[in-house]
Amino acid sequence: MIPRPRGAGVVFHGVRLFIPGDIMSPLFFFSSRRLAGGWSVPVLSWTLLAFAYGAVGAAPARPNIVLIMADDMGYECVSSNGGSTYRTPRIDSLAKSGIRFLNGHSQPICTPSRVQIMTGFYNNRNYIRFGFLDPEVTTFGHVLKAAGYKTCIAGKWQLQGGLEGPRHFGFDEYCLWQLTRRPSRYANPGLEVNGKLMDYKNGEYGPDLVSDYLCGFIERNKDVPFFAYYPMILPHWPFEPTPDSPDYDKTFPGAKGIGKMKYFKDMVSYTDKLVGKVVDKLEALGLREKTLVIFTGDNGTYVKIVSNLNGAKYPGGKGSTRDNGTHVPLVASWPGTAAAGQVSDALVDFSDILPTLAEVGGAKLPSKLTYEGLSLAPLLEGKPFKGRDSIYCWYHRNGIRGKESQHTRDREFKLYATGRYFNVAEDLLEKKPLETAALTGAGRSAYNALKTALARELEATRKATAALKKRGFGGAEKKQGKNKTNKAKSAEKKQKKEKKEKSRD
Asked: Is the CATH number of domain 64-392 2.40.50.140?
């Protein structure tokens, strides 16, 4: 069984509240009252509580937020997008209840996408290296926690930071795989749960344990605003049977069935099933109309997987800046607020997610930071929404400055910093670069707009690179990776030593 943290609530004027520690700032005047069990609970004025949490009769209550991100599941894997290789009835139902986006884009692989979606910044500004999140960044966990949300992350981490890392980045609770180690993620997994290493040997399935924890978090916090970030473990390689597969083996942790298409299909189906499990929990608790649910994928599908999209073969493009590497499913459902059955052609990328969550959650963005993303809140709430003319991508797996790929794009065209220019709507694999000198009229205008947008980002890249290099990042690969990893290991070793010494005292 996964342990869960204990907590205490405050009943104030008939409303049950959790008071996060970081809300106790000079803005709030409070006294302390001793309750049974030794809890010392701050008692705030009704005016200040109304300011922090939203009072009855004021603006509509802020929604709970559940952000789900599948691992290695491209746009073509969702049947409502036109995919015919897989069945995704629960994701399709989620799309029917809200907005399905035609032009949602991630980064080409997992860590860059995680960094971008969590911080709201393009990778040119704060990406350091694969498997690492800069400890100085502000995440959506920080932003929503400061606004009074209870926060949880459950699923895949892959960002280092040690056992205290998730809390450092704004999460009250966590249940994660690949935080400080890489054991099995599927059958008989190893997880890390709120500072404890948990190993399961009785046929448990990692994605089930993680989703159980997430549903438990939702139930424990049903009476307060919560933010649940669910970066799923599925359907990433190794391709193995799921508990719904006829040949699931409870005794075998490891890479069984690698490369077998039938197991990837099973894993996509199980991904869909777990999305439904979370939605069902919200329904059972009467929270569905009070909750914004967003579903997306962190990058394109594994390169050896070929699927069918709109009647044509569609190869997986994970790791590529081509559209099959960054085009991901994106669905937003908020019943009663976002009208059902919408299909949006808005151009969206992961830099838009943090500003969106902040606006719908009534959270203030840090004044010292400049965000380039655009909040989708007006679109969700049925208000006028202009959208973006272009989006940008900076990509190098290991964060090596000067060796990155950079491009800007709109719905049809993509312009690389190298000068290569493609009509990606007609040339998915980017085999036919366009002759820019021959462009006229609307074609020339579209090219010029992307060129201007790219020039702005190239300058942002120059400034960010200089700042990162002053901190010792962005240089040679050995320095970028090995030295910094050793530094992180030394810090973790020191932390373990201090804990051991404390336990002796």
From this structure: no
